[in-house]
């Protein structure tokens, strides 16, 4: 398998045309010794593998290296089934393929890139290793930090979460392959061999301005000491200094000293590491010489690119440098010797990969923390810790402020980034609030936001960013509402799952489809009925959410305005989506993919192509509604659909479908169908009906048949009366 540098995104490969691309360092462990993360010496990638000296001060070409001084290190493993894990509760067990000892694995960096990273932030090896272990890996061994390495990688279609290195991409080859660490021209500049160009805005913005032109009221800085003004400009980036000199006469006349020009190498030119030990004749000349060089030197451009990535890594490691993971530990991958709790857990997660799953996307559960009690979870306050990663904001930990004034913490707690949930005032009882469940917003990488569900059904405020992410209502119903424990799983950076333990025996009667599924755009009401083309099975982790379209509106108020359902097909017979047309066009709704796919991606273009629309007319004003479905589904695609209405009509899509196969009948448990749900990937699958038992269009339609009218006006008048009679007493 290929591997890419964990910092710059360019391949570490024996086939590279440049020597620096073959040289690497690795942060690695032996077998499953997580506590001991080492840095290798400088190794050389060869056709037979990645071999490096054990000692970090050594190089592969040192003459004094003996046979035992080098080790083979496997880089960027897609799975973790090669190391011990908690396959059996409370003990280690190894897969049959694991070697008894001496198996070294980890993550690689170009030696040049590691030197830049070390100069930028001197990273903790353990924290960096856990961060890499928690980050998805592409087919070519590139880590997906949530960015594209400033142009060295791109996301591939049709799966936008797959990252691909562009090391050999023709327009980028020269820039990506230029050695970022050894730039001989910089030393030439330090020795003053290039004549500098002067930037007027910095050096002398307004030469016609005279000292006598500045009066007491010229600007707010007039009476400040010159030394103070010099300190101010030394602390500012050059673009801010430029703006300040344009705006304020006092700064325009300020002489920019050598100390100021030297300070530029702590700002925009901090990646010019050679300047740290330099003593040039003129810092100003060096500054403008670098400005000249950076426009033409591919090596310097590549260094700046990688330095910016090192700064991102520094921010990331500062964000997650909050070990340990707080709370009572439970048996997990990194901690297999911890006790296994005996509770039954109702769990919510998305995209969690097992150790044997290729880690192309999603997240890994590396640690677990659990707290249980003998009664409902009552708190004075609940604080949520958040962490900012490359792909956005995630929940990293929870802190419960209890009645006893002792805090219970779960996960990575960030005191400076904690957010207190606002509980509804009516939920307070003797200064305590009882939490009955959770609302979660999840993406494939973890939990984006969390809110608490109170014992009276009210919802607290959100902590995090829930907008645009599918949601999970992790709660019980009725007598099962209260729960007595919380369990969370974490990778090295953030929370990846949350679970609740119930007070009563019989957890599985507590789990309904609504409370055990991921939904988009929001969790639908629990008092409706959900009947699908496939039997619902309880799982702890989802990939795709169930998408919902309530085309009937609340209590079916929009059904009498529905006049057409558009069924969209891709190719011969693959159903990809629907659209719903009403007498009031502002109510029109899309569902799934409507239109066509563009260039092999999931992006839809609303034009002609292999995608086509079939129309099903619905007499909503005449109280016609969808009654049931018949579905022809193969694997993850729907290839045929029959819609039956309450008037007895049955319409098939596509109409020419003639395959001899079994159709699955989907009948609603409730009296009136008010919506559809389905998993909407590239195609629809597991489509189902959402029905409401509190309304009955069939009864209203029968009443209308018994009272025929000879005029359209009288029919319209009686329609409003009939709709009022739809609701059951």
TrEMBL record:
<feature type="domain" description="F-box">
    <location>
        <begin position="218"/>
        <end position="264"/>
    </location>
</feature>
<dbReference type="InterPro" id="IPR036404">
    <property type="entry name" value="Jacalin-like_lectin_dom_sf"/>
</dbReference>
<dbReference type="Pfam" id="PF24539">
    <property type="entry name" value="DUF7600"/>
</dbReference>
<feature type="region of interest" description="Disordered">
    <location>
        <begin position="706"/>
        <end position="729"/>
    </location>
</feature>
<protein>
    <recommendedName>
        <fullName>F-box domain-containing protein</fullName>
    </recommendedName>
</protein>
<dbReference type="Pfam" id="PF01419">
    <property type="entry name" value="Jacalin"/>
</dbReference>
<dbReference type="InterPro" id="IPR056021">
    <property type="entry name" value="DUF7600"/>
</dbReference>
<dbReference type="InterPro" id="IPR001810">
    <property type="entry name" value="F-box_dom"/>
</dbReference>
<dbReference type="InterPro" id="IPR001229">
    <property type="entry name" value="Jacalin-like_lectin_dom"/>
</dbReference>
């Amino acid at each position: 398998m290929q591997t890419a540098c964990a910092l710059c995104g360019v391949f570490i490969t024996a086939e590279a045309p440049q020597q620096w691309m073959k040289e690497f360092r690795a942060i690695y462990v032996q077998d499953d010794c997580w506590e001991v993360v080492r840095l290798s010496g400088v190794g050389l990638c060869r056709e037979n593998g990645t071999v490096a000296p054990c000692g970090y001060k050594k190089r592969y070409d040192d003459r004094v290296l003996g046979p035992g001084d080098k080790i083979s290190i496997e880089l960027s493993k897609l799975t973790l089934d090669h190391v011990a894990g908690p396959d059996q509760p409370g003990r280690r067990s190894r897969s049959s393929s694991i070697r008894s000892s001496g198996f070294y694995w980890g993550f690689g960096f170009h030696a040049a890139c590691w030197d830049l990273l070390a100069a930028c932030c001197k990273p903790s090896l353990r924290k960096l290793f856990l961060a890499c272990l928690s980050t998805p890996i592409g087919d070519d061994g590139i880590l997906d930090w949530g960015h594209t390495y400033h142009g060295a990688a791109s996301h591939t279609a049709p799966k936008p979460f797959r990252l691909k290195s562009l090391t050999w991409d023709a327009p980028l080859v020269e820039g990506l392959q230029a050695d970022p660490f050894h730039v001989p021209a910089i030393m030439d500049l330090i020795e003053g061999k290039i004549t500098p160009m002067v930037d007027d805005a910095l050096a002398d913005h307004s030469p016609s301005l005279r000292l006598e032109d500045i009066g007491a009221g010229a600007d707010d800085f007039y009476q400040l000491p010159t030394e103070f003004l010099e300190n101010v400009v030394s602390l500012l980036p050059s673009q801010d200094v430029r703006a300040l000199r344009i705006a304020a006469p006092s700064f325009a006349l300020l002489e920019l000293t050598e100390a100021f020009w030297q300070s530029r190498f702590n700002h925009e030119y901090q990646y010019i590491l050679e300047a740290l030990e330099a003593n040039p004749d003129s810092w100003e000349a060096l500054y403008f010489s670098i400005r000249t060089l950076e426009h033409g030197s591919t090596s310097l451009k590549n260094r700046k690119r990688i330095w910016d990535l090192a700064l991102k890594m520094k921010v990331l490691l500062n964000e997650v440098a909050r070990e340990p993971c707080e709370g009572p530990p439970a048996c997990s991958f990194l901690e297999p010797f911890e006790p296994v709790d005996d509770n039954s857990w109702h769990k919510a997660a998305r995209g969690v990969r097992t150790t044997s799953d290729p880690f192309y996307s999603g997240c890994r559960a590396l640690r677990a923390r659990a707290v249980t009690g003998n009664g409902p979870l009552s708190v004075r306050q609940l604080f949520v810790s958040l962490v900012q990663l490359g792909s956005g904001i995630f929940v990293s930990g929870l802190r419960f402020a209890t009645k006893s004034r002792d805090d219970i913490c779960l996960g990575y707690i960030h005191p400076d980034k904690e957010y207190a949930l606002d509980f509804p005032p009516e939920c307070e009882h003797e200064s305590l609030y009882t939490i009955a469940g959770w609302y979660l917003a999840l993406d494939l990488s973890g939990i984006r936001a969390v809110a608490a569900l109170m014992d009276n059904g009210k919802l607290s405020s959100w902590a995090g960013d829930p907008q645009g992410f599918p949601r999970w209502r992790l709660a019980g119903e009725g007598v099962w509402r209260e729960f007595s424990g919380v369990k969370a799983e974490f990778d090295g950076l953030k929370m990846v799952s949350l679970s609740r333990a119930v007070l009563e025996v019989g957890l599985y009667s507590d789990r309904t489809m609504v409370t055990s599924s991921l939904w988009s755009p929001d969790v639908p009401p629990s008092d409706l009925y959900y009947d699908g083309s496939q039997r619902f099975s309880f799982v702890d982790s989802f990939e795709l959410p169930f998408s919902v379209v309530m085309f009937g509106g609340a209590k079916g108020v929009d059904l009498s305005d529905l006049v057409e359902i558009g069924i969209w097909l891709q190719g011969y017979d693959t159903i990809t989506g629907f659209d719903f047309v009403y007498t009031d066009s502002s109510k029109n709704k899309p569902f799934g993919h409507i239109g066509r796919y563009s260039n092999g991606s999931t992006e839809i273009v609303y034009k002609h192509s292999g995608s086509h629309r079939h129309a099903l007319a619905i007499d909503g004003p005449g109280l016609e509604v969808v009654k049931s479905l018949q579905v022809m589904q193969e694997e993850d695609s729907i290839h045929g659909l029959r819609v039956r209405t309450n008037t007895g009509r049955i319409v098939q899509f596509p109409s020419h479908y003639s395959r001899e196969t079994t159709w699955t009948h989907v009948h609603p448990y409730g009296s009136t169908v008010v919506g559809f749900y389905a998993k909407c990937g590239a195609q629809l699958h597991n489509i189902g009906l959402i029905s409401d038992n509190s309304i009955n269009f069939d009864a209203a339609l029968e009443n209308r048949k018994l009272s025929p009218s000879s005029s359209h006006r009288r029919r319209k008048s009686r329609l409003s009366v009939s709709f009022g009679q739809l609701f059951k007493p």
